[in-house]
Amino acid sequence: MSKRGRMSGNEAVALAIRQIDPDVIAAFPITPSTEIPQFVSRFKADGLISTEFITVESEHSAMSACIGAEATGVRAMTATSSAGMALMYEVLYVAASDRLPIVLAAVNRALTGPININAEHSDSMGARDSGWIQIYSENAQEAYDNMLMAHRIGEHPDVMLPVMICQDGFITSHAIENILTEDDAKVKAFVGTYEPEHHLLDPNRSVAIGPYGVSPYVFELKRAQAYAMEQAKGVILSVAKDFEKEFGRSYGFFEEYRMDDAEFAVLLMGSAAGTGKVAVDRLRGRGVKAGLVKLRSFRPFPAEALAEALGGKNKNLKSLAVMDRSEGFGGFGGPLGAEIRAALFGRTNGLKVVNIIYGLGGRDIRVEDFEDLYKELDAMQGMEARDIPYVRYLGQREI
Amino acid sequence: MATEKGKEKEKMNPMGDIGETSPWQSLTQGGFVYGEGNSVFFNTGDWRTKAPVWKQENCKQCLLCFPVCPDSSIPVSNSKRQDFDFFHCKGCGICAKVCPFGAIGMAKAGEEGSHE
Amino acid sequence: MIEIRWHGRGGQGAKTAALLLADVAFEAGLYVQGFPEYGPERMGAPITAYNRLDETPIRVHSNIYDPDIVVVVDETLIGAVDVTAGLKSGGKLVVNTGRPAAEVRAKFEGVSGDVSIYAVDAADISIRNLGRNLPNTPLLSVVARLTGVMDEKKFIGVMQKAYEEKFASKSEVISGNMTALREAWNGAVLIGCDDIVEHVTTA
């Protein structure tokens, strides 16, 4: 039976870690993810976990230690945010190309500068091409559930890729919310054990991990990595199905909220989705056909499924706002906006799309902001596609 | 020639047929290299443009040559150096430089060998 | 849904009070949120913390702009921060103060007449019972009462359990806190708005 509880997103992630009881955690503290290794070290001191906890001198070292540990055939985990993740970037690519299914609890925070500690997706967006699976959470419940699914996804023999479970810094990491948690034993049984085909400490089958790749091999190895990411799509769905069977909560690539007959929709990731849903309910109460899509799996990017949901299947949808909590500095919006447009190109008829940048540096986004945005989407219907700006900034002061 | 020996070794290579023409589906996950000491299976002998020649008549078996060889291509058995391992020798000539007795000369690649 | 906004200064425990209130409401079977508005750690800087309490799951993840209850942990914030911004008509304002009712009421001249203002000398209660000025504990008690999520007996029981878990080795801390909570539960005084009643210290 699920247990009712209340805790912060960081506590929920830490609880998942305790239940998973990984072999190694190597972490360096950085706001707002600091609490996660703090909780873990308390679990360790209290004898609740058998994890080897490595205190390192930087995030670069934390990820390097995770790589070394995972290569010996054990489970390694870490947690980080913002500049900490940026310091990991170099080695994130190594973890992915070495096909080591490390799990990282990311608590999204703005990258400097100006230096800021609040929510933004710029940190994990900087790692979007690193080869890591990236799953985003709306609240503490999803952060917990996604952590429980992470190892099953990453360690699947067809995948063997590292997994980043993201949640919004402070907004969910430090907010107490209601949550359903699961039995230790049930979680352990669900997560299972990690038995990689090859690892460094196998005396009978020696192996070298992370060799230099000369040109005749690198392209092919990257292709294999891309293929593994494609395979991850099916695995994400099948693990979600098992999770639902076991624990009753349902997940997919994305959540469609009141999208059935929606004419106007927003698409976004993370905590603001909940606020958006409240706006959708209010608008529906006033007869406006509003809907919302919350993307959960950003890597792999479910392009076809999104094109189907936003165009192929939904013939009523007239305009869409794709919302980025990070700036791409290309003069035309953020990463999610660019990728959604690319996924939809040639697959939707006349759907008007605008990219919205919001919430930078933890800027609050209110239900009313969403209501205003849906008004804009309504107005966009009557506009020529070429007259719609690529990007708009929401909740920002301007003249 | 030593290449024959190399071919035999290739047969035992746990990496099998994987090579520079293998399609991406045939490579190991993550480019992992299975087995240990796999470098012996790799033919660096064909990189040579020059080749050492062991002049056994001058050789005192002082063994100054084998430790300086960067490719471990001077095998030693019962405290005596043997002929070069031409599957791996890159013809760098360090052994010829270090030999105090003029027992190692350098010839063009293809003219490997030793003479009594 | 009941929305509560706490105004305090860094280090005064407004955030802790919000998190504890979330715990209390959770024990009453409600859906809860308790969260601070975060910035760099700056002792003494004005800070805000929030609560949402509801009978159905809470999905909104924004700050609170139209609270039902505002708590002023530090009265020196009045004037410096617009503490009553957006306070709902019919809402409640809790002020930690030892000043006479008329004086307190005068500070909120612009506040609508149907807002109930409650004064509690949380500093005094805290200093007498805990030996230190930790106003958040008495204020928590007042707010818990005003939300109506549980009665005094249940509230004290929940808090007793929470403190026992937190301060297992310091029983003197627990009893002081329990006395402070009880005093505050009964000690907050409605000083009204249009009809100022009176201000009573708890001493």
Concise synopsis of the structure shown:
The complex is a heterotrimer of chains A (399), B (116) and C (203). With 116 residues, chain B is an alpha+beta fold.
Report on this model:
- The complex is a heterotrimer of chains A (399), B (116) and C (203).
- Chain A has 12 helices and 16 strands.
- By secondary structure, chain A is α/β, with parallel strands linked by helices.
- In chain A, the strands form 3 sheets. A 7-stranded mixed beta sheet of chain A has the order 3-2-4-5-7-6-13, sandwiched between helices.
- The longest helix of chain A has 33 residues.
- The longest helix of chain B is centred in the first third of the chain and has 11 residues.
- Chain B is built from 3 helices and 6 strands.
- Chain B is an alpha+beta fold and 116 residues long.
- In chain B, 17% of the residues lie in helices and 17% in strands.
- Chain C has 203 residues and is of the alpha/beta class.
- In chain C, helix 2 links the parallel strand 5 and strand 6.
- Chain C has a single domain, classed as Pyruvate-ferredoxin oxidoreductase, PFOR, domain III (Pyruvate-ferredoxin Oxidoreductase, domain 3, 3-Layer(aba) Sandwich).
- The chains are: A alpha/beta (399), B alpha+beta (116), C alpha/beta (203).
- At the A-C interface, strand 8 and helix 9 of A face helix 1 and strand 2 of C.
List keywords for this structure.
heterotrimer; A: 399 residues; alpha/beta; Rossmann fold; seven-stranded mixed β-sheet; six-stranded mixed β-sheet; 12 helices; B: 116 residues; alpha+beta; Alpha-Beta Plaits; three-stranded mixed β-sheet; two-stranded antiparallel ribbon; 3 helices; 17% helix
Q: What global shape of chain B is seen?
A: elongated
Number of strands of chain C: 7
β-sheet strand percentage of chain B: 15-25%
CATH topology of chain C: Pyruvate-ferredoxin Oxidoreductase, domain 3
- Please summarize the sheet with the most strands of chain B: 3 strands, mixed
Q: Strand order across the biggest sheet of chain C?
A: 2-3-1-4-5-6-7
Radius of gyration of chain B: 17 Å
Into which percentage range does the β-strand content of chain C fall?
A: 15-25%
CA-to-CA gap between the ends of chain B? Answer: 17 Å
Could you say what the CATH topology of the domain at 1-13 and 43-110 in chain B is called?
Alpha-Beta Plaits
The string of secondary-structure elements of chain C, in order, is EHEEEEHEHHHHE
CATH superfamily of chain C: Pyruvate-ferredoxin oxidoreductase, PFOR, domain III
Provide the low-confidence segments of chain B as ranges.
none
**What multimeric state do the chains show?**
heterotrimer
| Second CATH tier, the architecture of the domain at 1-13 and 43-110 in chain B | 2-Layer Sandwich
Q: What's the architecture of chain C in CATH terms?
A: 3-Layer(aba) Sandwich
What is the overall pLDDT average of chain C?
Answer: 88
At the first level of CATH, the class of chain C is: Alpha Beta
SS class of chain C:
alpha/beta
